[in-house]
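It would be a great kindness if you could assist me with a short task in structural biology. The full record is reproduced below for your convenience:
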Amino acid sequence: MTEEVCTGQGQVGQRSPRVETEGVHADIKLNRRGELCICDWYTQMALEGRVFQVKAGTITTPLIGDILITDTKAEMACEAPLGMTMIPVYAHIATRDGISASDGTLHEYAAKSVGLAVTTHGTAFIPLPLKMGGVASHCVASTGQTGGVVVAAEGPTTTRCHWHVANPVAMGAGHETTSFMWQPRVPPVCAGIATFYIQVAAATHGPDYYASFDFIELPTVNVK
């Protein structure tokens, strides 16, 4: 039996990207050593205008978290409507010392999702496209101080917990970690109707914080 070897050629492209219209054949791109140039999936989603950001706190004005994480209460949330899928890929929470009379103790932060709609939206936030001038998101986001966004009650078979920071050192000592980042290796896939939400809390006093999270948005038919 003769073994068949598949061969092909690509186009060396170094100086400028090629511009092609939709639905036409194009050469694959190679570098000068003949190696295939591959764009990672996350970058490709951003180039297509499918990545969005939700943020809380502006300039020098942070938001205030809850006093202890409370069931159904969240500080940030984004809801994917029916027919759309939201894939959270990054979150960041930075606490700020010295603003409140007390910065609280036993801080706790969490990122969760549930296959249900937001019960009560807080302050509306229009997700920002990471592609400047990109299309608008289909998802609906909101923020709310001290648990002002109401989500479905947490259940053992309905709620997913993707990230949890529990009881870091109390704020204000000048040496503690005050910035926390979540960048999952395997991101949650929230097929609408679904909600992704973040909780920020501490004992005795809600912490002052800035936060943001990024998500990829795709039609559900392109995911399932």
Notes: The longest helix spans residues 41-47.
